[in-house]
Amino acid sequence: MKKNYIDGQYIEGAAARENINPSDISEIVGIYSQADTAQTRAAIDVAHSAAEGWAKSTPQQRFDVLDAIGNELLARKAELGELLSREEGKTLPEGIGETARAGQIFKFFAGEALRLKGDKLASVRPGVDVEVVRESLGVIGIITPWNFPIAIPAWKIAPALCYGNAVVFKPADLVPGCGWALADIIARSGLPKGVFNLVMGRGSVVGEEILTNRKVKGVTFTGSVATGQHVAATCAGRMAKFQLEMGGKNPLVVLDDADLDSAVETAVQGAFFSTGQRCTASSRLIITEGIHDRFVAGVIKRLEGLKVDNALSDGVHIGPVVDDSQLAQDLEYIRVGQAEGAKLAFGGQLLERATKGFYLSPALFTETSNNMRINREEIFGPVASVIRVKNYEEALAVANDTEFGLSSGICTTSLKYATDFKRNAKAGMAMVNLPTAGVDYHVPFGGTKGSSFGSREQGSYAAEFFTTVKTSYTLA
């Protein structure tokens, strides 16, 4: 059994949970401890005690630790990528790619530890010097989702440690394997005892203690809108800093002048790969009427050629849905879409494979309107809707008509429309002739409206959340 990691020791939890392979539900990936409230509180206490010492560490110490973590992740990407695919259901190439990205994130923040800057300014008063520096917050609570079980923890843990904070990390209860493997690497990186702690378990138990404990000075959360709102209300109630990444209903606009083959591939990649279980997935395909029918025919033909099967099998494009609960949600939305009058043009059926798992054929709806539930609510599965519009102006209006604002894309050969879309898309990220899903690790990530709250994640912008600014005055 894999145990929690607290104060430099592996400690058995109050209970245990079996981790099931969604590609083959007869396989138990591993058994993982579940922390209770008391154990979570103990982890927070030791992090609080260790935080001051790590805050005073040198840039070289932080570089060495983060670089060592990144190196081991990259060296073991095939092994850990397979673990990721077994517990989450991503295809093996996607699992390996995500693990490599986690390694690159740690190595990027190793470099950032050497680049932390401040300012020295002239005061408006004679004989006074002004210095502005960034300081760590203290204890950071990190709560991550199941869909990117190693990359999202990496892009939260790495900057937290880079900027001198102590960490209490709760991975998603559904996929503890990658979180534990990452914690095991961190445990052997040379980090001082107590600076990093892993507590696996239920959000209602472990997560709640992280949210309410006053020794936790900042909480960074990625997950559902409802839980994100609870995180916000709880942290605001005790004046703790918080950062939220929640969801998306991301549009991909395809104009008449687009390259058809490129647009089809962009849509299919963005909407259906990773089983559509990405907050950046292209769930609304907004197509102008001149290219609409050819685009739909092209997407259906491409979907017909996709292989849905065990995540570890060769040549698989789409693995299983992550678990039975998510599969039931996907099927319910497919039922809702048909009840609303949308046409199920392709897929949406349960599939049987050699191993029993949560297999669903990618579903494409046509003849939909933007006010349907399937176009308003995040489904988080391999389900996309086509919305027919007259022209660019209507396409942009429909794209922006959503409570979310994470990622937004357009396929066009027009510089005029591409430029206008980048300027006027109401989203944190805008893509031109690229899938809405897929971002670099060294640039800011985040959205607007109901998708995100707080400062951006990733890249140098991560410093905004994981540090606070101090201004010092000296009379010369």
TrEMBL record:
Record flagged with keyword Oxidoreductase: yes
A Pfam family this chain is assigned to: Aldedh
Domain Aldehyde dehydrogenase: 17-471
CDD domains reported in the protein's UniProt record: ALDH_KGSADH-YcbD (cd07097)
Superkingdom as given in the UniProt entry: Bacteria
EC number(s) given by UniProt: 1.2.1.3
Keywords, ordered alphabetically: NAD, Oxidoreductase
Assembly with partners or alone: Homotetramer.
Family under the similarity heading: Belongs to the aldehyde dehydrogenase family.
Protein name per UniProt: aldehyde dehydrogenase (NAD(+))
Organism of origin: Kiloniella laminariae
